[in-house]
Design brief:
The protein is built from 12 helices and 13 strands. The protein is an alpha/beta fold.
Length: 307
Amino acid sequence: MENSDVNTAVNRGCVAAVGMFDGVHAGHRSLLSDLRDAGQEMGLPVAVITFRNHPLSLIAPERSPRLLSTPDDKARLLHDAGVDRVIFEDFTPEFRAMTGVEFLKMLSLKYGVKALVAGFNNHFGSDRMDAATAAARSRETGVEIIPSREFRHTSETAVSSSAVRRLLESGDVKGASAMLGRPYVLSGKVVTGKQLGRTIGFPTANISPCNPSVLVPATGVYAVDVRVAGFDNKFRGMMNIGCRPTVDGADCALVSLEVNIFDFSADIYGRTVEIEFLKRIRDEVAFPGLDALKQRLSLDREAARQA
C-alpha cells in the first residue's frame, strides 16, 4: 500500500479515480480501463484514492457492510489492474466535512491530481457535488473531470459491491464471481480444530479469517480452490461453512470454516491460505450419524472435483 506525499510524485502529477473500490469488481475495472487510457493520453501515471474504512462505518455504523477485500487485497487487485499508485485515506469526520471543491483542491495539492476519471454516479464532498458541476469548476479546483464510459454487463442486475455482497450472503458464489470477474477469495490462517475429520477420512483445516471485517459467504458446502502459503500449486478442495449439526448438535450457534484439501497431507498449522469459491454444492444439513455423513461427503468430493 502507498500513502505517500512524495514531492516528486506530486510535482509530476497524475490522473486519478476516487472511490471505495471494494472487491475491485468488473464495473470498477471498466472505470480503471478508462483511467489507464486517460493516463496514457496525458502522459501521466494513474492513481486510485481509496479508503481503509468504509464511509458507512463513520456515517451509519449499524449499516456498515462486511467488506469484499482487505486494504492489502484491494491494493494488490488495483495494481494488477494497471494502477501505478494506490493511495489510502482514512474516512474521518474532517474528511467527511470537506465540500466538493475543498476535496478536489486537496487532491490537487496533496497528490498532484491533474484529472479525475469519474463515473456517472460519482459525487464529491459533503455537498454531494456531481461530476457535471465538478467539471464546470475545474479551473477553480485545478482538477479536470473526465467522464468514464457507461459499463454494461451480461447480468440483469447492476454490478456493484452491494450486489456482490447480496449474492455471497445467499451462497451464490458463481453469480458473485461473474460480477467480480474472478472467484471470490477469503484469506485466513489455519488453526487447531477438533480433528474429527481425519477420523472419518476427510481431514480438514480449520480457518480463521485474517480480517474479521471481511464477508464470509452463506453457510453450506462449497467447491473451492486453495492456495497455501509456501506452496506453488493451487489445490482443489471442498469447504464447509456452518455449525456442523451432525457433530456438534442442532443447537450449536458457532459457525466454523473447514476446508478439506484434496490430495494434500502437509502440516499447515499456522499458515495463511486463500480460499477461492467456485460453486455452492449444497446446504449444510444434519445427518443421522457419521456413516451417513461420510457417504454424503464422498458425493460432495466428487462434485467439487468436477466444479
